[in-house]
Amino acid sequence: MLEHTELFFKSIFIDNMVFSVFLGMCSYLAVSKKVATAVGLGAAVIFVLAVTVPLNWLLDQYLLRDGALSWLGPEYADYNLSFLSFILFIATIATMVQLVEIVVEKFSPSLYNSLGIFLPLIAVNCAILGGSLFMQARDIQTFGLALNYGISSGIGWFLAILAIAAIREKIRYSNVPPPLRGLGITFIITGLMGIGFQSFGGMLTGGDEEPAAPVVSEKTVENIKEEAKKLKEKEELDEKTVSYTNTTIKE
């Protein structure tokens, strides 16, 4: 449970797709002028990541990685299809995005028109593919953790675009210097928000850990005792030598 909680909060705040690795910036900048469209696109990204990351985890575990085909028989244990990762991951993402596009067009035509070309372009959103590639690179062990990572990464991207959309709506009424209006002030705000999100980096560390006690073998202990014994004998010999020298000088 602790592992799931740590992964959830770390993916949202610390390893945020926008503020940490700067993925999905095209949609982030283009569709963040209104909160309503930002919410719609953010929800679509959460859904796509929540579905594609665990699906791609299954593909990676049982089809792509080295030895993944061993379930078909021992003669397939040496096969490695990892070179097909990009093709299959993108195919899975494109399928889910097409499903999202059909659903949004059916049930919310106004949102579909507001998102425009950026809804089908989720298929080439680097944040979506990045979620699957990070899942593969970090070697997430279970299906549940992969699902957790997909949902939390989507929520992190959703919070980023929602926050910048809310700020951009309010900043229209502010006296922004002419050279910074538009994308200029947006990039500045994004940088400041990134600094704010990175400040969460220490919230899961639990403080400084006490250094572990060194492990010493029995042989090492015996060697230490032997050296200490020799040192003690040498000190006693030196004391006798000093005592004999002082006696000789007095005589």
Summarize the structure in words.
By secondary structure, the chain is an all-alpha fold. The chain folds into two domains: 2-202, no CATH class; 216-251. Helix content is 67%, strand content 0%. It has nine helices and no strands. Helix 1 (2-14) packs parallel to helix 7 and helix 6 (126-137) packs antiparallel against helix 7. The radius of gyration is 31 Å and the shape is flat.
Brief overview:
This protein is mainly α. The chain has helices at residues 2-14, 25-30, 35-64, 85-107, 109-115, 126-137, 143-171, 183-198, 218-250.
Shape: flat
Distance between the termini: 82 Å
Helix content: 55-70%
Low-confidence stretches: none
Total helical segments: 9
Helix-strand makeup class: mainly alpha
Average per-residue pLDDT, rounded, comes to 82
Largest sheet: none
Which characteristics define this entry?
251 residues; flat; mainly alpha; 2 domains; 67% helix
